[in-house]
Amino acid sequence: MLFMWGLFTAVMFIGTLKLNRALQFVFASLALLFFLLVLSEATGSTVILRIAGYEGIICGLSAVYTALAQVLNEVYGKIIAPNGPVT
Asked: Rounded to two decimals, what is the model's pTM?
């Protein structure tokens, strides 16, 4: 089941390639997280599971920043928090 979520997230990442870099990072790190969880489940490795945990924290913090940047930039009509627009 986790593999399917990883695959779905990887496909969604492709959809972000014309959006901003912050969203690209969120989806890329989320796909990586799912695949790390699949790998830890398949191997039973606690080391990979710990790495996945840290990756999950990075992914979550990046998602919070991305949401904050999008809202603030929209509300103020200018770049308050940069999100790396694709040109």
From this structure: 0.91
